[in-house]
Amino acid sequence: MSRVFSGVQPTGNIHLGNYLGALKQFVELQEENECLYCIVDEHAITVPQDPKELKKHILDVAALYMAVGVDPKKSIVFVQSQVSGHAELGWVLNCCANTGELFRMTQFKAKSAGKESVGAGLLTYPVLMAADILLYDTDIVPVGNDQKQHIELTRDLAIRVNNKYGKTFVVPDGRFLKAGARVMALDDPTSKMSKSAVNEHSRISLLDEPSKIKKSIMKSTTDSEGVIRFDIENKPGVSNLLSIYSALTGKTIEALEKDYEGHGYGDLKKDLVEVVVESLAPIQEKYKEIRESKELIDALNDGANRAEAIAQKTMKRVRDTFGLGL
Ligand code: TYM
């Protein structure tokens, strides 16, 4: 049995990219592994947040985890800030990371571009992510492609500490799906679907109404060739629609290309609207039920206690490794 860890930021609007890149994997993996799924609220405050909204979004994400099928009886579901080891190990790892490697992170570059000054937390964000993962002796980290560089840094830090002080950390592997690892924005298929894009039609959020889903997909950017085939370089829009279709239905891209031979983009889009609406309907129904239930908070508190027990063991080992305390 492997140990699995992953997290999602409670910054609102969990979208199809988060679902197909990460959450779908969470559900698959929980059947045969020991899984910890975290709502990473400490990561969220690397950029300013409204405290009331943040608290609400923490519960929104937790309810969505469960609505897509994460079972708190099988997996440990918890909120990052409820386990102090994340921040503590984050500090220790900050002392092992070099500023140069953090300045090279593409997400830091993107988020700090054009800004006169950014919070130090934005720079050290990937170190906290490494702490999340290493705190639980994680073997596997299911994530979307955009987290590849952060997983590499986590591995580098683990290997660096192990080489210097002797085996302290498990060196984890990222797990990326073939379809869904990088869902692109509907209005601009050369950039990834993101929670923060200004245009709400660039993404499909898991809680979107059918009318909004229809509008976003029907308006999505394609090309003028009029042929439905997968070619990321020359046809990023159509390829993105095919990837989403494939990830949601399990049909291969090749089979879809065959099905749509001789059809126009309108047909593909119309069918995809149906696929997305039908896939999200049961999630939305479950979400409403879970979000209002008292069991949600109980499950998160229970998850935090179970996570804490594992974290404490690691932190004792880490303090000994580094010579901290008495
Ligand atoms: P976050 O909250 O931005 O995204 C959550 C998960 O969704 C994936 N994802 C995507 N996958 C496919 N296509 C997309 N367009 C897309 N957009 C997002 C992300 O890869 C991620 O798996 N740093 C992380 C959160 C984190 C974490 C961790 C993850 C903190 N600590 C430890 C794993 C392990 C993040 O910002 O994810």
What do these coordinates show?
The chain is mostly helical and 326 residues long. The chain has 13 helices and five strands. A three-stranded parallel beta sheet has the order 1-2-3. It has a two-stranded parallel ribbon with strand order 4-5. α7 crosses α8 and α9 packs antiparallel against α12. The longest helix has 28 residues. It is globular. The model has no long low-confidence stretch (mean pLDDT 97). Tryptophanyl-5'AMP binds next to β1, α1 and α7.
Question: How is the topology of this model organized?
Answer:
Blueprint: E1 3-8, H1 16-29, E2 34-39, H2 41-44, H3 51-68, E3 76-79, H4 85-94, H5 99-103, H6 106-112, H7 120-134, E4 140-142, H8 148-165, E5 173-175, H9 210-218, H10 236-249, H11 253-259, H12 265-292, H13 295-322
Helix pairs in contact: 3-12, 4-7, 4-13, 7-8, 9-12, 10-12
The structure holds tryptophanyl-5'AMP.
* Rg over CA atoms: 21 Å
Mean pLDDT reading = 97
- Order of strands, main sheet, comes to 1-2-3
Q: Could you tell me how far the N terminus lies from the C terminus, measured between alpha carbons in angstroms?
A: 35 Å
Can you count the helices? Answer: 13
Indicate the structural class: mainly alpha
The total strand number stands at 5
Q: Cofactors and ligands present?
A: tryptophanyl-5'AMP
Strand content: 5-15%
Shape: globular
Uncertain runs are: none
The portion of residues assigned to helices is 40-55%
